[in-house]
Amino acid sequence: MGTIADTLLHTEATLPRIFFRYDLEFTYHAHAMSKRFIREFGFDETSFSGIVDGRLYYDFLVNKQHDIRYERLALNQDILWRARTEPPDMEFLERMERELGVDTLWRLRDAERWIPHYTHTQVLSAMTLVLKYLEREFAEHRPDAVFGFTTATMYGLACFFMAHRFGIPCFEMTNTRLRERYVIEDQAAGA
Fold first, then answer.
1. Is there a contact between 126 and 79 (Cβ–Cβ < 8 Å)?
2. Gap between the Cα atoms of 85 and 41, Å rounded
3. What SS3 state is found at 16?
4. Which burial class, exposed, middle or buried, applies to 127 when counting CB atoms under 10 A from its CB (0-12, 13-18, 19+)?
5. Alpha carbon of 57 to those of 22, 30, 33, 62, 113: distances in Å?
């Protein structure tokens, strides 16, 4: 983890900023990493933002733990819930398909296992809301890196595509079959 921190500390920002994809139980790992970045590398609470998958994990970050006061966290379930009633923005989606450089945004739907009962329109709305959130977040609070865990959701894949569009390095942590061993990969190198 020192190499990642060293890379981030050599950015032009006063304090590096990391956008985490807090993905279910990996939320605890990301929180522990944040504490270590603060303790060992001089990061502060304003260095961390992200999107959380799971209300239990969001509640942990916002209400249960008392080590870090996270200022900007979004909850994936809230975005998906809004997609049930908000209309999609087709012009925005067409622009995103061009700017993200993907053959089809339906890859986002294929990655999302939590909305199989959504209508075609609701899926388009979910894509719209997730991509708009990420575009706004990265434009207004540009992170120096995006850190996630095994990409297997709409917001995870959208986050990777959007970070790539903004030229933000992406790191992904995946657990191995070995006890307490993880692999951290720089996905931007393969993009």
1. yes
2. 44
3. coil
4. buried
5. 8, 11, 15, 9, 18
Both tokens assigned to 52 = 């959380």
Tokens linked to 13 = 């920002």
Q: Count of residues for the chain?
A: 191
What's CA 9's distance to the chain center, in Å? 20
| Residue 105, burial from CB neighbour count under 10 angstroms (0-12, 13-18, 19+) | buried
Which DSSP symbol is given to 64?
I
24-43 pLDDT per residue, tens: 888 998 999 999 999 998 89
Nearest Cα residue to 48 out of 64, 63, 27 = 27
State whether the Cα torsion 8-99-119-82 is positive or negative.
positive
Instruction: Please tell me the pTM assigned to this model.
Output: 0.87
